[in-house]
């Protein structure tokens, strides 16, 4: 495998279109009973978004698989893994937006789910998206032993020692001062865990060696943190229309961020260091990891 | 395997003590970060309960395994499966009790989780219990192909076509008149799906044949519905102190129940018919299914 033949924006746009089609297919029909719940699940999942997690699954899969195993069956498995991480991400946003959490009315330029429907439907839609994700992993057409590893990774990353735990620390930290280490722990759980799971799932499906998995883990740790630092910078430098969600909300809510801790310049320098870490981590994977490299550039350089 | 040597109440009490110890072990330590979330998860899970789902896992395992495969390893796998269904059940109660759902302040004679902690913690604790359950299945020391089947069953039973879907129908049906068929659909999803999953998981871990699985599925369908009919009868014939939750709440909330649809006598007759169905379903499994038979008796005869 050599350098990518399609430029990154075109590749990413293609992957976004593809995962949207996959998600449309794996979600229960809007007309299936219970209809309102299924419509709400679709509203939560199909409302756009950057699909960074799905892109990471595909890019890691591309980085790790040998050309001769790049079969249609493996592509199907990557689709399931990419859909699973997007479903978990979508559920987390729905619950995060609820009045008892961030109480946000706007997401991706649309009313949040509980505003469009109601709180009970929003909670249940989130609740139902989680098992749908695990079910998709269980249906991947790969060796059962690899599926079991994938389920373990998703379970750990979504749980109390991963995303849900990070969310809990985030809630508890409003109005308090965190050290850089505490802030790092919170974000590595809240955001980093699922970004890391995306990268690892792509590698597992592609039959990554243990060396390749280690490279992916280092990459994921750096990229996961970079994603959050970039988010904190955007929260103070961008506006609501560009973000598609309420800008300045973290600062307003007195939430600890990298910008509040390190200042804007300090945060930008930290972001560059993480970018360098991410690029260095995947050097052992060679040119096959070009998409992972480009995703790191994208995460550092994005403006929304 | 012959008839049980320990009488049912003693066996059930032993299984309850055992699963409590297993749950205590599989839940993250109360002192592990984030502490409040982990304490809340323990509050949700360790607060007693009948442990009917765990008992079904163990009884189905006993019904299906050959004596010579009754190894310690298989016992460990049954423990994980039993803990998984109890975790999912516990999460569903926590979310069900929230103000946007049933808004209940009392559960098993104690304040509900959001009353004891807060709504955000209750939502996140429920959210984190789900992946913990899937992670436990993935760690079962049995063939990966069987684990994959177990994950599929739990994913389906907990999702929008199972428990979460039944919950959504239940919410939407407040104040409306359901036919007996619609009520049956709602309950077979809301309660029956996870009871059925418990029975099937026990069978899968024990290496049940396809004939045995069919018997378990028929048994589970009858027992799952019987459980709900018994619950509806108890809601109007018992008091709050005995139930450990608010009695008469369904009738007050204008929720459709079997009693509101068929009357008290009609519901009791229906319960007896389901009991007979459950007993007939497991005849092919012989005396090894004695505990399943006794659980059916217990579900029909329980007073809380």
TrEMBL record, chains A, B:
Pfam families (UniProt xref): polyprenyl_synt (PF00348)
Superkingdom as given in the UniProt entry: Bacteria
Protein's GO biological process: terpenoid biosynthetic process
InterPro entries: Isoprenoid_synthase_dom_sf, Polyprenyl_synt, Polyprenyl_synt_CS, Prenyl_diphosphate_synthase
Necessary cofactors: Mg(2+)
GO MF term list: metal ion binding; prenyltransferase activity
Keywords: Isoprene biosynthesis, Magnesium, Metal-binding, Transferase
Entry-linked CDD domains: Trans_IPPS_HT
Cellular component, GO annotation: cytoplasm
Keyword Metal-binding: yes
Family: Belongs to the FPP/GGPP synthase family.
Cited PANTHER family: FARNESYL DIPHOSPHATE SYNTHASE
NCBIfam families xrefs: FPPsyn
Protein name: Farnesyl-diphosphate synthase
Source species of the chain: Paralcaligenes ureilyticus
């Amino acid at each position: 495998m050599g350098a990518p033949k399609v430029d990154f924006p075109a590749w990413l746009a293609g992957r976004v279109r593809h995962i949207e089609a996959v998600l449309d297919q794996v979600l229960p029909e809007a007309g299936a009973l219970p209809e309102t719940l299924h419509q709400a699940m679709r509203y939560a999942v199909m409302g756009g978004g950057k699909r960074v997690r799905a892109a990471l699954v595909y890019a890691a899969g591309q980085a790790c698989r040998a050309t001769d195993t790049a079969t249609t069956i493996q592509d199907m498995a990557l689709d399931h893994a990419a859909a699973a991480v997007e479903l978990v991400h979508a559920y987390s946003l729905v619950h995060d937006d609820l009045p008892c959490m961030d109480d946000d009315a706007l997401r991706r330029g649309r009313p949040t789910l509980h505003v469009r429907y109601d709180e009970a439907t929003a909670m249940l839609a989130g609740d139902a998206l989680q098992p749908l994700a695990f079910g998709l992993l269980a249906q991947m057409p790969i060796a059962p032993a690899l599926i079991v590893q994938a389920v373990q990774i998703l379970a750990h990353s979504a749980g109390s020692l991963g995303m849900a735990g990070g969310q809990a620390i985030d809630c508890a930290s409003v109005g308090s001062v965190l050290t850089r280490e505490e802030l790092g722990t919170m974000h590595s759980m809240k955001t980093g865990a699922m970004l890391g799971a995306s990268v690892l799932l792509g590698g597992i499906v592609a039959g990554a060696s243990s060396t390749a998995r280690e490279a992916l883990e280092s990459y994921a740790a750096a990229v996961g943190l970079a994603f959050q630092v970039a988010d904190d910078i955007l929260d103070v430098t961008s506006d609501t229309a560009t973000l598609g969600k309420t800008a300045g909300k973290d600062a307003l809510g007195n939430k600890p961020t990298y910008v509040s801790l390190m200042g804007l310049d300090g945060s930008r320098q930290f972001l560059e260091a993480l970018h360098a870490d991410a690029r260095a981590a995947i050097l052992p994977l060679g040119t096959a990891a070009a998409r992972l490299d480009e995703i790191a550039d994208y995460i550092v350089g994005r403006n929304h």
